[in-house]
Amino acid sequence: MISRFNIKLFLKMIFVFLIVIACLSSPSAFSTSAAFAAPASYEPAWTPSKTRVFIVGVLEWINSETYSSFPQKNRRDEKLVKLFKDAGVPNENIVYLKDGEAGADVIRKSLSDHLSKSSADETLFLYYCGHGFRTSDRAKTFFASHDSGNDGVEEWSLESIFSDIEKKFKGKRAILAADCCYSGALCEIASKRKSGISYACFASASATNSSTGNWTFTERMLLGFSGAPCADGNNDGAITLGELDENIVGDMAFAEEQMASSKFTGEFKSDMVVAAAKKKRDENIGRRIEAKSGDDWYRALVLDSKDGKVLVHYFGWEETDDEWVKPVDIREAPKNKEYKAGSSVEIEWNKKWYPAIVIKTANGLHYVHYKDYDDSWNEWAGPARIRTSK
Question: What predicted TM-score, i.e. pTM, was given to this entire model?
Answer without folding.
Answer: 0.88
